[in-house]
């Protein structure tokens, strides 16, 4: 008999409330995670970015209690994990998959056995295990490798096995601890595509931590930036890319979209230097050419690119505007009216 | 000095002694495996930061293991006479010697198991924990397979130690090759027997080491 419970499900898959993790060493007390509160919505891909030592790894490891938080609560799918231990905690972990930077497969077991291990943990009857493992191997594209040992696989293939193992028990959450940091750029892209596919097709909420802004730009919906154990900025990836507030956030973004102009070029510029940011819905070419026609201003493109974040265009251009002072000012005002952002980097000399 | 006919004459004694040696190390190795392996797993898994962390158990087991390991074997041999009498019924012969040999081999092998498991990448254990596996599953499917190759190496080491210890058991009338070497080679200045027994021991140790290395390599999938 199946009983259907009509329970209102939370929109929030993960709720982190005032989470702290303190490490006590001989000399001092280190706050790995310092009073972090975050809500992660069901079905989204959430990225946490920070340099090593920022606490992002401690944070993600607290989410399945691989590390016990010093204080605070973690609710996953409305279950308070911090209150669980023993069998209850193990049952909760079945629904929280995790993949790692160094894959951590059992080296003495075949790919098949590695994945079957997760199913055995969930006490799946052995006659059903084979079918499920083959299903998972097919999903990650490694059906032919079932009887091979991890040592015979490439990094990307090992991570695929890690993903298959993490997804074995149909989890609602997948935690990715620097999952692509040990992979080359091409392999990284293919793993990210696989994660995106999993997120879309299985509606699994993904939390990933990384120091690579590219990863976030590629697949995340929302993101948080961590520094010294704290979340210093949080929001939609698109918004953060177009309007970073904190210096560290800007620094991270400049690793993906950099607008450095060489000093030798800077010294030859006499006009007003502006940075114009166009968001998806603004037709950039139109705005620029209209401005040039309306005002007696000469525009000089110095740098620029259009990035696609969550399939929405973000254009950022550095321009030198030459002309009379008030003409330039009016031109800037006009661009602003068209819903583009203008930041004056340097007034004309 | 080397008298072939004399050796041939004592061949039945040599064969019997060799059999006794195999019997002693066979029994004590089996007991070391049965008791030492779980003890090693207990030492490892109850250590700080591991999934069965338990300071009390870890220190108590560790303490006893260290005590037995710090007693010289020859003293252990004598000290365990009452226990031997209780278990086997008498205090001489290979069965009696097996008691002390086992007691010495258990803590030695337990430490070897513990050390072998320390070589496992902590991440692999954490990954297993994160799948929701029970401690028993992790021990059985992760710790033991991952340290198997290294434990086999350790087993080789234990076995060779047992060969050496079993020769010492000869001193208290334990039987075996060592007994033969002492009775003939040492007390009666019988060089031929001395040489033969030493040769047998050398061959035995070489074979054990060779076999252990081969098996350890063969089963390693890394």
Quickly count the domains of chain A: 2
Please identify the structural class of chain A as seen in this structure: alpha/beta
**Which two chains form the greatest contact, residue counts included?**
A-B, 31 and 23 residues
What CATH calls the topology of the largest domain in chain A is Rossmann fold
**What letter string, H or E per element, gives the SSE order of chain A?**
EEEHEEHEHHHEHEHEEHHHEHEEHE
SSE inventory with pairings:
The complex is a heterodimer of chains A (349) and B (222).
Chain A: E1 12-24, E2 29-41, E3 45-49, H1 56-63, E4 71-76, E5 79-80, H2 86-94, E6 96-100, H3 111-121, H4 126-139, H5 155-167, E7 173-177, H6 185-202, E8 205-210, H7 213-219, E9 222-227, E10 230-236, H8 237-242, H9 247-254, H10 263-266, E11 272-279, H11 284-294, E12 297-309, E13 312-323, H12 325-337, E14 341-346
Parallel strand pairs in A: 3-8, 3-9, 6-7, 7-8
Antiparallel strand pairs in A: 1-2, 1-4, 4-5, 9-10, 11-13, 11-14, 12-13
Helix pairs in contact in A: 3-4, 3-5, 4-5, 5-6
Chain B: H1 4-9, H2 11-45, H3 55-70, H4 73-79, H5 81-88, H6 94-118, H7 122-130, H8 135-168, H9 177-186, H10 191-219
Describe the structure.
The complex is a heterodimer of chains A (349) and B (222). Chain A is α/β, with parallel strands linked by helices and 349 residues long. Helix content of chain A is 35%, strand content 31%. In chain A, strands 6-7-8-3-9-10 form a six-stranded mixed β-sheet, with helices on both faces. In chain A, strands 2-1-4-5 form a four-stranded antiparallel β-sheet, with helices on one face. In chain A, helix 4 (126-139) packs across helix 5 (155-167) and helix 5 packs parallel to helix 6. The termini of chain A are far apart. The relative contact order of chain A is 0.12. The mean pLDDT of chain A is 91. With 222 residues, chain B is mainly α. Chain B has a single domain, classed as Orthogonal Bundle (MetI-like fold). Chain B has helices at residues 4-9, 11-45, 55-70, 73-79, 81-88, 94-118, 122-130, 135-168, 177-186, 191-219. The mean pLDDT of chain B is 91. The chains are: A alpha/beta (349), B mainly alpha (222). The interface between A and B is medium-sized, with 31 and 23 residues. Chain B: Belongs to the binding-protein-dependent transport system permease family. Chain B: It comes from Sporosarcina ureae.
């Amino acid at each position: 008999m199946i009983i259907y419970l009509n329970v209102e499900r939370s929109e929030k898959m993960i709720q982190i409330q005032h989470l702290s993790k303190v490490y006590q060493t001989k000399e001092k007390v280190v706050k790995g995670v310092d009073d972090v509160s975050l809500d992660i919505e069901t079905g989204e891909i959430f990225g946490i970015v920070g340099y090593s030592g920022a606490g992002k790894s401690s944070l993600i490891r607290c989410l399945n209690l691989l590390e016990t938080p010093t204080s605070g609560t973690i609710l996953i799918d409305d279950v308070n994990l911090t209150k669980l231990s023993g069998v209850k905690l193990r049952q909760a972990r079945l629904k929280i998959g995790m993949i790692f930077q160094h894959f951590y497969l059992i080296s003495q077991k075949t790919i098949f056995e590695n994945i079957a291990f997760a199913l055995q943990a969930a006490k799946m009857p052995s006659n059903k295990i084979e079918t499920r493992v083959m299903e998972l191997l097919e999903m990650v594209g490694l059906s032919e490798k079932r009887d091979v040992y991890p040592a015979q696989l490439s990094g990307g293939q090992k991570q695929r096995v890690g993903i298959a193992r993490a997804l074995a028990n149909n989890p609602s959450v997948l935690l990715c601890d620097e999952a692509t940091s040990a992979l080359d750029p091409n392999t990284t892209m293919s793993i990210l595509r696989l994660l995106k596919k999993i997120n879309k097709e299985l509606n699994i909420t993904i939390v990933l931590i990384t120091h690579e802004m590219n990863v976030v730009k590629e697949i995340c919906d929302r993101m948080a930036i961590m520094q010294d154990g704290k979340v210093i900025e949080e929001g939609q990836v698109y918004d953060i890319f177009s309007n970073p507030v904190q210096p560290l956030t800007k620094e991270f973004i400049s690793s993906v979209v950099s607008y450095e102009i060489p000093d030798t070029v800077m010294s030859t510029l006499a006009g007003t230097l502006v940075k114009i940011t166009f968001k998806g819905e603004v037709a950039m070419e139109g705005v620029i050419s209209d401005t040039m026609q309306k005002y007696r201003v000469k525009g000089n493109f110095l740098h620029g690119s259009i990035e696609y974040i969550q399939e929405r265009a973000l254009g950022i251009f550095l321009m030198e505007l030459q002309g009379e002072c008030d003409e330039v000012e009016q031109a800037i005002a006009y661009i602003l009216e068209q819903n583009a952002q203008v930041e004056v980097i340097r007034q004309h000399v | 000095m080397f008298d072939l006919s004399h050796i041939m004459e004592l061949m039945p004694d040599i064969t019997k002694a060799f059999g006794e040696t195999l019997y002693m190390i066979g029994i004590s190795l089996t007991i070391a495996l049965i008791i030492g392996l779980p003890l090693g797993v207990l030492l490892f898994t109850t250590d700080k930061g591991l999934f069965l962390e338990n300071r009390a158990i870890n220190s108590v087991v560790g303490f006893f293991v260290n005590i037995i390991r710090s007693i010289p074997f020859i003293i252990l041999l004598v000290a365990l006479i009452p226990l031997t009498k209780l278990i086997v019924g008498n205090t001489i012969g290979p069965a009696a010697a097996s008691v002390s040999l086992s007691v010495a081999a258990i803590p030695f092998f337990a430490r070897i198991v513990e050390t072998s498991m320390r070589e496992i990448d902590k991440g692999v254990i954490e990954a297993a924990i994160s799948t929701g596996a029970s401690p028993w599953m992790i021990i059985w499917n992760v710790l033991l397979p991952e340290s198997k190759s290294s434990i086999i190496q350790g087993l080789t080491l234990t076995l060779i130690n047992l060969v050496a210890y079993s020769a010492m058991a000869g001193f208290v009338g334990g039987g075996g090759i060592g007994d033969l070497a002492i009775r003939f080679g040492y007390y009666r200045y019988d060089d031929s027997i001395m040489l033969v027994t030493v040769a047998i021991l050398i061959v035995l140790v070489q074979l054990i080491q060779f076999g252990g290395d081969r098996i350890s390599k063969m089963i390693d999938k890394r």
